[in-house]
Write a structure and sequence with these properties.
By secondary structure, the protein is α+β, with helices and mostly antiparallel strands. It is built from 4 helices and 10 strands; from the N terminus they run αββαββββαβαβββ. The chain has a 10-stranded mixed beta sheet.
Length: about 190
């Protein structure tokens, strides 16, 4: 009986310590009409030259409200976030793990192995932030310029004893973990990317 109590106590402590490391992430998105979009946001998206129809969303998170444009460009799924006034916040697009430089990817894998008993990628995005012109140049050249801050946003399922949970983890361009959030699930009525 003491062994079972000890095992349960250790499992609970591991679960608790993992939960304390992560903040929570909750986002809810609603489709909105293009007429509701600030002109500056629309102009920025037009300058990218999307290959597909643009879908606009209002995104409500635990700490902010924003506007997001989702579309395809050069065979990649893009998500561009603006504040409610149309000021650019960041640009993200989905990539494969093979697109992360091998040295950086190895550091990311080592960190994930230290955090979770098992883990599996759900989605990997590259995240650009910087000035309008620097980000546009990076998108059109298909590689980030020196003035653009690059991060890798990884959504994964992480498993530890007695607990499997989805997390969003942000790594910088060198593969160092910057931020971890436990994802709070919600029924989504839209395509997430």
């Amino acid at each position: 009986m003491k062994i079972i109590t000890l095992i349960l106590s250790i499992g609970f402590l591991l679960l608790l310590s993992n939960a304390l490391k992560a903040q929570y992430k909750y986002e809810r998105e609603y489709r909105i009409k293009s007429e509701m979009i600030p002109q500056s946001a629309q102009a920025f998206i037009d300058s990218i030259g999307p290959d597909s129809r643009i879908k606009w969303y209002k995104e409500i998170s635990l700490d902010a409200v924003s506007i997001e444009a989702k579309f395809k460009h050069n065979k990649k799924k893009f998500s561009v976030e603006f504040d409610t006034l149309g000021i650019l916040q960041d640009v993200e697009f989905i990539i494969e793990s093979s697109e992360i430089p091998p040295v950086v990817f190895n550091k990311i894998e080592q960190k994930l192995d230290s955090l979770y008993e098992k883990w599996k990628f759900q989605k990997i995005q590259i995240h650009y932030s910087g000035s309008h012109s620097d980000i546009l140049t990076s998108i059109h050249k298909n590689e980030p310029g020196n003035a653009v801050k690059v991060y890798f946003e990884i959504v994964l399922k992480g498993k530890n004893p007695g607990n499997t949970q989805e997390y969003e983890i942000t790594f910088n361009a060198q593969g160092e973990m910057q931020h971890i959030q436990m994802i709070i699930q919600d029924e989504a009525d839209h395509l997430e990317y």
